[in-house]
Design the sequence.
């Protein structure tokens, strides 16, 4: 019988995966898009709360009035000798709200509650994102360790198959015995391919958890 030669195409995909480097990468929640969106919502909510609180602040306004009057026994509107007396008035109004309406107080309370809710969501999201990354790293490491074991089993089974093939050609074993070695090799090869796929799948899951997509 001819020698059995099989090529591994999935191994080409593993060349781009540095498992140890990937697992050791630092993860920052601040760079995650979901956390950034929630922070933006919190900033907007703070502005809303600030705006509602501002309704209780005193308001200061100023005004200016200028007018001219003519005095005399005779009114000479267009006479150059007519005397006009200017008058300037400058004033400031200060409005201090002593009593806030119930609606204003209620709106401020609602804005505070909404802000606290967003802050709690941020804290919970931060914990969830960190846990997802840790779990994904653990899954990747486990999948990679399994791949190494399956690779060893495949290599051992391949050596046994090659040895069995030599014995079969020499007439030392039957075709049925050789077929058993061949079947065992295909089983280990299939397990190796499955382990390779699990590594790639775990890597994709980790990339998603770390917001690399």
Sequence:
């Amino acid at each position: 019988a001819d020698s059995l030669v099989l090529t591994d195409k999935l191994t080409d995909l593993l060349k781009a995966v540095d498992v140890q480097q990937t697992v050791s990468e630092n993860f920052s929640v601040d760079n995650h898009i979901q956390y950034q969106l929630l922070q933006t919502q919190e900033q907007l909510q703070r502005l809303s709360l600030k705006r509602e609180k501002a309704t209780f602040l005193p308001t200061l306004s100023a005004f200016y009035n200028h007018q001219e009057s003519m005095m005399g026994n005779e009114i000479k509107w267009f006479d150059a000798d007519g005397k006009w007396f200017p008058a300037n008035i400058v004033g400031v109004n200060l409005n201090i709200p002593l009593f806030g309406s119930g609606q204003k107080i209620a709106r401020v309370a609602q804005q505070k509650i909404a802000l606290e809710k967003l802050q709690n969501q941020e804290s919970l999201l931060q914990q969830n994102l960190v846990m997802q990354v840790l779990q994904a790293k653990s899954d990747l490491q486990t999948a990679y360790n399994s791949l190494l074991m399956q690779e060893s089993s495949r290599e051992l089974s391949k050596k046994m198959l090659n040895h069995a093939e030599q014995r079969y050609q020499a007439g030392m074993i039957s075709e049925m015995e050789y077929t058993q070695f061949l079947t065992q090799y295909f089983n280990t090869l299939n397990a190796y391919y499955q382990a390779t796929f699990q590594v790639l799948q775990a890597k994709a899951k980790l990339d998603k958890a770390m917001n690399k997509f």
